[in-house]
Design a protein that fits this description.
four-stranded mixed β-sheet, alpha/beta, single chain
Amino acid sequence: MFLEERRERILTFLDKNERATVNQLALMFSVSKETIRYDLRVLAQKSLLLRCHGGAQVLRKTLQSDLITPSPDMDIASLLKKIGKKKKRTSLLSNSQTVQGNVCILGSFNVDIVAKVERFPKGGESLMAINSTLGPGGKGANQAMAASNAGAKVHFVCKTGKDQFSQFAYRHLSDSAIHSFTLYQSDEASTGNAVIYVSQQDGENMIAIYPGANKTITESEIIAISEQLKKSDVLLVQLENNFDATFNVMRLANALGVKIILNPAPYSHEILQFIELANIITPNETEASLFSGIEVTDMTSAQNAAREIAHKGVQTVIITLGSNGALLYENSQFQHIPALPAVAVDTTGAGDAFTGALTAAIASGQNLGWAVKYATAFASLAVEREGASNMPTHQQVMHRLSLNADF
């Protein structure tokens, strides 16, 4: 057995069994204890496991408080040459099976400051809020929560400041259904935050985001997650991180043969430089309008916008249309998936719920049409809950789908 193969199997064993002893691993692989100790030491140096007395244990929750020192002989370009192209095999599952798959998400973590108001204020107007809350958010964190609740095995990567909200982020992610995460910290920037108004009239929202540390992810920090990315079926990214980090992780995923889903939010023309790396793009109506130059007001304009976006180099376009469902454009064919009936309480994070659930379904090998239907049902449940990170479960989604057999 080759050295790298043995180390990969050690990680697989730990992932399944949480911990292992040196004696146990030496017998398993028919090598000396000293060889296993060396393997564990190398893997620990790569932050892939945690050494303990007599063995090792799985490392799934990492708070990286110190800056990663770049390797003098390794940058993204060098790593890409070393990797070469790798193809991944996927299998189609029946619609009744539990959604499973490996997903890596590079994204943002924000502290959400949410104020409920009777209506949105006009310019220069002050309104008394009905109430306010402070909680976890960020498109990346919300989508990681959604994909995890939909049954995917998610590794989430984000960055906060070294302030009072860093431990808040760590506790939230540790207590969640997210399988594993890497939480980097910035010495200079503070943890990102978002100020959100939620209207009681219709559950719609207005959001202002300060990205903070989300915009400071380094090339070395992207290189450091290459092992996690290698294990993934799908990479999901948004645009709340710095563009060079997003571009680099997409380049890395492409070299590894990992499918890439891009949620182009908040929209920026910067995505044009790496749009061709994405396999699937998931804009909402506003983002699709900005991206295509065609204002999306109805189904016809949505179809025209989808065509224009596809012409820019992306294979599959899925435009979310709020209460009108979603439009799928693939292989020059359109499919409209209507929304399921829902009593909207809070639409904050509805798009994140959709994208996270879609990613989980695609990672499992589900066909794209079913994945969009599943994500639409998932989002219909999410808007009936308060809070952007308050996501439904896979079982609840399947129950809602069963009640709408004609959907």
